[in-house]
Amino acid sequence: MSKVVYWVHASVDGFIAGPNGEFDWPVMGPELSAYSDGLNERVGTFLYGRVVWELMSGYWPTADQISDHPHDLAFAKVWRNMPKVVFSRTLTEAGWGARVETDVVGAVRALKARQDKDLLLTGGAGLAAALAALDLIDEYQVVVHPVVLGGGKRLFPLAGRFDLKLAATRPLDGRAVLLSYHR
């Protein structure tokens, strides 16, 4: 059975996007990029909510044609080839190797049961909150970047409390810190 891994970049003050939705502050240095590459090797499917899907599908299909950053060059190919599931009540199709699902619980449980590789939930506080409330996230990987955004989209907009077990911490590129937690 596979695990759902929530992979997210956060500011020191607990936001995943700035007050105007900006996401220009995470810095993908060599160590963070290498860690991300290793995480992608254990994954068989990317999971997205509609908002994050629109951001990802607006950049990654051609990122290696418009950027020379080593992370972008490597990840664009991974992104294009990876199966993707987009959870949405409004989209009917997504393109780029993605299928749209409306039944979050049923789809995630089915994927976990039939896949050997893990499922990677990237960003998206709304989908993460829904999955966390149902105890469907097995591992939380939060990369904290040295920036204070002062507002924006919260990392965990959850109504209820739940406990996590610290699995690991790791500084990356002398700048960011990875916090890994298990349920």
From TrEMBL:
What Pfam families does the record point to? RibD_C
Q: Which domain of life is it from?
A: Bacteria
Which intervals of the chain form a coiled coil? none
Record-annotated Bacterial bifunctional deaminase-reductase C-terminal domain positions: 3-173
Q: What is this protein called?
A: Dihydrofolate reductase family protein
Native source organism of the sequence: Actinophytocola glycyrrhizae
